Amino acid sequence: MIQVMLVDDHHLVRNGFRLILETQDDIAVVADVESAEKALNFLKSNRPPDMILTDINMPEIGGVALIQLVKQQYFDIKILALTMEIDKHIAADVFSAGADGYLVKDSSCDEVLFGMRQVAKGEKYVSGSLGVSCLNDYKNYADRAPDRNRILVKYDISERELHVLELIADGYTNGEIADRIFLSKRTVEGHRQKLIEKTNTKNTAGLVRFGFHTMLLH
Question: Domains in the chain, please, with CATH?
Answer without folding.
Answer: 2-126 (3.40.50.2300), 133-214 (1.10.10.10)
